[in-house]
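INFO worker-7 received task bundle
INFO bundle size: 2
INFO processing item 0
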Amino acid sequence: MRFTILFCLLTCLLPGFVTGQTRAPKYSNEFLSIGVGARALGMSRTQVALANDVTAGYWNPAGLLDIKNKYEFSLMHSEYFAGIAKYDYAAFATPVDSLSHIAVSVIRFGVDDIPDTRFLYDANGAINYDNITFFSAADYAFIFSYARRLPFIKGLKAGANFKVIHRNVGSFANAWGFGLDAGAQLERKNWRFGIMARDITSTFNAWSHNTTLVYDTYVKTGNEIPQNSIEVTLPKLIAGVARSFTIKDKVGILATADLDVTFDGMRNVLVRSGTISIDPHIGLEVNYEKLVFLRMGAGNVQRIKDFDSTYHTTLQPDFGVGFRVNKFTIDYALTDIGDRAEALYSHVFSVKASFK
């Protein structure tokens, strides 16, 4: 009952944080919406109620308290857009005492080896390929998580994240930002409930542009000179529920569903309005003795306009498998980050290690 009240309060309060932020971009720090861990990506990112390992530092820090071992590590690598963009993730978690847990997560999403052709032509007007240099455009997130069991409700856990964001486009521009997340989980027999408020106080990125490097080029090409600015990431609320089933003695099934609730106006999702949009997604995991896992999920429902001005609805399916060998878990997912029209699915691998 108290968990339901908490959900209702957060749902009512979050739009208040958005008031006065109408100029904020609808999509900001979107690299933090891709997700971490091949298990989660194979289940269409339905992890708010389910996350119970080191990846909970990203999905819902309250889930860190379900880690059974003293140390847990995780690594993930994936590539998008035919290998042009690379996404890397690393995390570590350990208990502080019997009631609390901490974790550190690092995420990088970047495009490397971008050619800088500003000086392709030399002083004589001839092309000189030796003048081409290369730079990277990358986004970084450093997430520090803390979770603690709450004594007044049995099975209730809460956690929070402090995030440091760094984004750079070579030496041309860079930004630093800070933000907070808060989450909770409640376990009742075979049921698990979760709630996660991302960027609960809004996350602010302060952009600094080195205009001296591009001023002449921008003036000659008629482009607007970029100015230093503040980019705001508005709050998002995610609620989830999961239910486990046992079939015979060796086979188990885990079903889960999440609702992503945004307050920045109409988005191209299943449920949308001028103020609030809701993006549902579901996941399923079947395990054999918790050693072999088969996963699937569906979400990211969108309405797409065709060339003939008609519309059709798309649904993104995800698939995955996992294997646990002693202290190691290896997961694989076949997933996407939204471009289903071209079927640009990506292969995602992650590994997790647990040590006492």
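INFO item 0 finished
INFO processing item 1
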Amino acid sequence: MGTTTRPPRLSWTTVAPVLALVVLALSWGRDPGPVLVVVVAAALVGAVLAAVHHAEVVAHRVGEPFGSLVLAVAVTVIEVGLIVTLMVSGGDEAASLARDTVFAAVMITCNGILGLSLLLGALRHDVVEFNREGAGAALATVLTLAVMCLVLPTFTTSRPGPEFSTAQLTFAALASLVLYAAFVVTQTIRHRDFFLPVSPGGAVLEDEDAHADPPSSRAALTSLGLLVVALVAVVGLAKVESPAIEDGVAAIGFPQSFVGVVIALLVLAPETLAAANAARRDRLQTSLNLALGSAMASIGLTIPAIAVATIWLEGPLLLGLGSTQMVLLAVTVVVAVLTVVPGRATRLQGVVHLVLLAGFLFLAVAP
């Protein structure tokens, strides 16, 4: 009697993006009731988790440091889509949404993802080491972008309020693109070794995934396609869910600016999970590349995209940070520099960054 061969089962990572797209098609343009809100939220979480998986498959295929760019750019696509759609429907109340979201993304990446990665790595090895040349270059780029796009609008005088003039916004957008492009060239072509892990003696090591069998080209292309589907579903479902998010924030008495924090937490969930997984697998350099690369992409790509969107968006675009936000940014700068310069860290540095994130979240709720 012959044996029966069972067909391969579809994995949840294949089903989730497609199912999320179906939920998006069925819910688009409808007024979601409580049940539909829950269904959309579940599909949204599934699409985010699936996006993490497929981005990691593609990243494994192309190798580091190219792989870290895949998820960073993908997350930025989600962020821009959410900000623009909410600004279109939010009117003047959404004038500061881009600032709130981008600043929240910077704090989450430079304190949350970075701190979590350091803590997870140090819990396994007490002291973790990383490539300080690459981390320092990435941090310098992030800080320059943050000051140029989020701090200077508070002090310019061409427009009243924390707002750039058209010429200033154009310059900031172009400068952001130049800085991001220069960093990508540095990371992937000119000084690729700066973004690879180092040994305790400081020697650059090969990519951690180099000795593992990479996925086939077919598997990588399939994951790339499903990643695109998942990202489309995330943007669309988040748009469907956005009224519930705004109503929920208002119902619990949080400031309207907290909507930007919710968006940032949502779009950075894939990065956070991917960085945490990498840190647990002793790939701390990948975690740092993800954290700082995401912060850079969040400013360097989002601000130019929003600048282009202002051509048809009505109302002001408030980008300048308030005094409390600037203090938090300044402390983050000092702490991040002290973390990166030595090229090694302990649990303490991880906890310090996580406490800074907690302080940001608390002050976002109770300013």
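INFO item 1 finished
INFO post-check item 1: Residues 75-211+255-365 form a domain with the A middle domain of Talin 1 fold (CATH 1.20.1420.30).
INFO post-check item 1: The CA atoms of residues 125 and 309 lie 46 Å apart.
INFO worker-7 idle
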